[in-house]
């Protein structure tokens, strides 16, 4: 199928897409290159699309450079290269861009409408309930195709008059606690929906464990979780999550009876709608790029038929860049990867919590002395990691690298609430249970697990009854299992109450 345009006209529109950014942004970037018949124009549109995905609007020099690279890699033959140069030569002539844009909009819009109609028909006959939000956005795009921003009817909001409604409905008003009460207190409840959260930690200091902890806490608040690991195998991830949720030592899960009891707790939580679904995927380090990472989460949503708002990537440093020019630069790779994770957090109208971690430079310290608190200066390879993160946390084990006694958590960057530079005291951990803090207050009471009642931990809306932030752990809390005989080997018991629910600022 083609647009049915004259080939000379196709070549002119391709040349304008290269040299006129307004032309490209208003219509050129919506041209489907497979529907262009002229080989040179088709190749130019493909080049423009690739460059736009990587860097923004294309330019003449960048298109020439990208074409030369593809020629050197054997991905572009000499005849096509000459056709590309022929199209680019047309950019030297003077063209009436507005008139050409007006002629191009019609066939492009018709093709887009046909595509949308086909997708709607396919969705209507599928077994799953169709989601039409994306179709509506595409229809609106079709309607405004070719119209400049200055001519679009985009009303401005008025401060004071529209403020309350805008703030009340903003995704930043939905927060999910980390489960580390001291840290959530600094964050006024926890990370905001639509945030990219990066945790910086030294090697073997617990980066994967904090991500495991976050996943367990989110699930215990009835949020669906996608967990993609580039470091652990699936069995290890499942074991850690099971331990964190059921409240049992990871090692004790090697005992069949303990694992059976832990599994029963999880089944009961599912039965009572008190545990979100968790979907786990694993890849080898440095085998998957940022686009494939984001696509994996989207595919899980599509395949499972559920919304997955909590997305965990363990961890960002192990992702490769899809861009050829980034392959020899960890600095550039950091930008590409974190920019993609940031875009996934924004979610294009469907915001998510995106959690990842990054490797810190090993701090200088002497055995027996407290480890210096990590900061952004300890970030390896790329400053873009903290620049692009909405929330940048550091975790520093105390007093030794094994994190035997606990962690100091520092908010090194906070885009939403200005907690930057604040730190906790040493927070005891429960790493042997897959937890970075005591979360025994989450989930169901013991009597609820016995079938005496139900509980729903769905994130609250503005105005709904909230819970007290930072509820005390109690004087009896200790990080080690031997201090909790109710959680001893082979005896899994669920102690607790709802402690830190997801909340809105209106609950403060």
Jot down its keywords:
single chain; 508 residues; alpha/beta; DNAb Helicase, Chain A; Rossmann fold; 2 domains; 8-stranded mixed sheet; 8 strands; 39% helix; 9% strand; elongated
Quick one: how many beta strands?
8
Q: Into how many domains do the coordinates divide? A: 2
Binned, the helix content reads 25-40%
Shape type: elongated
Poorly predicted parts:
449-508
Give the termini separation: 57 Å
Widest sheet, order of strands: 3-2-4-5-1-6-7-8
Order of helices and strands: HHHHHHHHHEHEHHEHEHEHEEEH
Report Rg. Answer: 26 Å
% residues in beta strands: 5-15%
| CATH H-level superfamily title of the largest domain | P-loop containing nucleotide triphosphate hydrolases
Describe the structure.
By secondary structure, this protein is an alpha/beta fold. The chain has 2 domains: 7-143, Orthogonal Bundle (DNAb Helicase, Chain A), CATH 1.10.860; 171-507, P-loop containing nucleotide triphosphate hydrolases (Rossmann fold). The protein is 39% helix and 9% strand. The protein is built from 16 helices and 8 strands. Strands 3-2-4-5-1-6-7-8 form an 8-stranded mixed beta sheet, with helices on both faces. A hairpin with a 7-residue loop joins strand 7 (407-414) and strand 8 (422-423). Helix 6 runs antiparallel to helix 7. The chain is elongated, with a radius of gyration of 26 Å. 40% of the residues are buried. The model is unreliable at 449-508 (pLDDT under 50).
